[in-house]
């Protein structure tokens, strides 16, 4: 792990006691402790597992943590049919995730088998104090990698008691678009590349960076290997496995260009599933970084200057694009996207203007462009798609903090449902030539 958070405690090695103040204990600090212990001639730890236990045990009761871990790992399946459902929803900022747990009498196969629930919307910025009740509608379920067994994670959207979707409920409108017959017939596929940055707690500076300073320039970090290049790999790997366990359609992961930054890919997913899977994957990442004592950032430009930002590139295709002759359909979709560039930019994430500067593998936020194999364009088409005459396009404009319900449904709406006049379409085609 990148670091271990330990409370104020006494760790005992042989007859020597070491006091550790509250706060993050880095791997380097622990290595120093072990080295000093060995130099003193005392016996070292017999196993890595015992060393790990010493790093979190309090001197007052060395068995407390073990007993707590035993309880957390309890398998309830042989004892009761009851399960724990973690209801997850999006808070008032549109990017913050909230959750709470409830007991369900028996395992369920679908969200339809779960009851609606409510929460205090005045505490999430979604309702006034005098009328604070907000209703959660279960929409999708995933296996819970933290509790295991038949326990589940439940992706919900939020409504007023009268049944009206909250303004922050972007899933509602997305579900309407994905329910359109023309959209259903086109079977829209999405592959979403979620970039994120890991920050050191308290100082909110990227993981692996010297506090108040900078690492070497970009170059060796992208897909890099080594203690001086890859910061936070354990978090990325833990998240990868947690997603697979949960049933999220994660397809890969890699270290990114800026040190301390990572990416994972979700898809191909069809329609509304893409948004559900990305939001659940973000929840898992929040929980894992919480356990590791590291701060997760989806800021599109976490560090100003000559550093890459963080995006959420969205790969998109329809049945017509994937069939023979699909390249012409892709070009028409690109023309439609050019006509609605401002609308898409306005919906593609907060702070995106700090990222889309025309530098660091981005296009200018003010100008729409497309190209084959060009990562400096708004829309990139792959070489293989051009060669085969069919395939997909990549929208490189969405920021890392974008709402996947908004981006996926807007792409479907623009590419499939939007019908510009012939005059406007002809003008757009000339501009893009």
Automatic annotation (TrEMBL):
Q: What is its EC number?
A: 6.3.1.2
What is catalyzed by this enzyme?
A: L-glutamate + NH4(+) + ATP = L-glutamine + ADP + phosphate + H(+)
UniProt entry keywords in alphabetical sequence: ATP-binding, Chloroplast, Ligase, Nucleotide-binding, Plastid, Transit peptide
Localisation per UniProt entry: Plastid, Chloroplast
> SMART domains annotated for this entry?
Gln-synt_C
Q: Which GO terms describe its cellular component?
A: chloroplast; cytoplasm; mitochondrion
Q: Which Pfam families match?
A: Gln-synt_C, Gln-synt_N
Highest taxon, organism lineage = Eukaryota
List the Gene3D superfamilies: Glutamine synthetase, N-terminal domain, Glutamine synthetase/guanido kinase, catalytic domain
EC main class here is ligase
Which BP terms from GO are recorded?
glutamine biosynthetic process; response to cadmium ion
- Which family is this sequence assigned to? Belongs to the glutamine synthetase family.
Describe the protein's quaternary organization and the partners it interacts with.
Homooctamer.
Q: What is this protein called?
A: Glutamine synthetase
User: What is the protein's species of origin?
Assistant: Amborella trichopoda
